[in-house]
Amino acid sequence: MLQHFSFKPMFENADLPGWTFSFFFKNTRYTGEYLKEGDINWIGETPPDEEKLKKMIHELMIFHVYD
């Protein structure tokens, strides 16, 4: 389960899509960039269970950003 998920726009002009995000998974902090196409670029270490986590991140971003 993701803990302490947070995100913010990558650009000052909020009309430009792209967000940075961070969360904790298994007591390790991970960060990345969520791009307008739905692609995820990890900053630093790639988490285990990457595909499972990508699905969770997509769901959270759709709920918070696009809804």
TrEMBL record:
It holds the Pfam family DUF5342. This is YheE family protein. It comes from Sporosarcina siberiensis.
